[in-house]
Amino acid sequence: MEKIEARKVSREEIAQRILVGCGVFGALVGAGGALANRMEIQIPMPVVAVGTVVTMIVMAGVTLIYWRMIDEAAREAHKFAWFWGGMAGAAVALMIGAVTDSAWLTAMYGDLKPAGWLILGMAGLLIAQAIGYALAWAGWWLVRQR
Fold first, then answer.
1. Contacts for 141 with CB less than 8 Å, ≥ 6 apart
2. In terms of C-beta density within 10 A (0-12 exposed, 13-18 middle, 19 or more buried), how is residue 87 classed?
3. CA gap 80, 66 in Å, rounded
4. Are the CB atoms for 66 and 19 separated by under 8 Å?
5. Does pTM surpass 0.85?
């Protein structure tokens, strides 16, 4: 009789699966929102608000689980990348914002309400920080892989 051995899944593999699961979840939510927008379906604001709060609570828990499962080197990479990459991304976003003409933004996005401009600016800042984070994180690992 052949014995089937179950492969033990490492903590790092579980953490990677959590990370991929979060990415898939985000992609599905984004695609669903884009599809609803394209089909001109208006999602009620209370539904969006409750969904956002629930998602934030769940993702905070998932982040805590992920953080506890990764090793010290991965933690240091994340801290370094968020501090240096996030700050560099924010600085680049500030410089871009300082030289961007409001007429160009109005031509690109239309005449938005003040809340729309606020959300656009916050999204631009977060995207710039995420790009800086990703570059710093990759650089941190590249330097240490020698």
1. 77
2. middle
3. 17
4. yes
5. no
Q: What does the DSSP assignment read for 19-62?
A: HHHHHHHHHHHHHHHHHHHHTT----HHHHHHHHHHHHHHHHHH
Q: Which two tokens stand for residue 44?
A: 């009620």
67 vs 51: CA distance, rounded Å = 24
Three-class SS of residue 79?
A: helix
Cβ atoms within 10 A of the Cβ of 82, count?
15
Residue by residue, pLDDT tens for the chain (146 residues) are 566 655 667 777 887 888 788 889 888 988 988 898 889 888 888 988 888 898 889 888 888 888 888 889 889 999 999 999 999 999 999 999 888 888 888 888 888 888 888 988 899 999 999 999 999 999 999 998 87
Which residues are CB-contacts of 55 (< 8 A; sequence separation ≥ 6)?
29
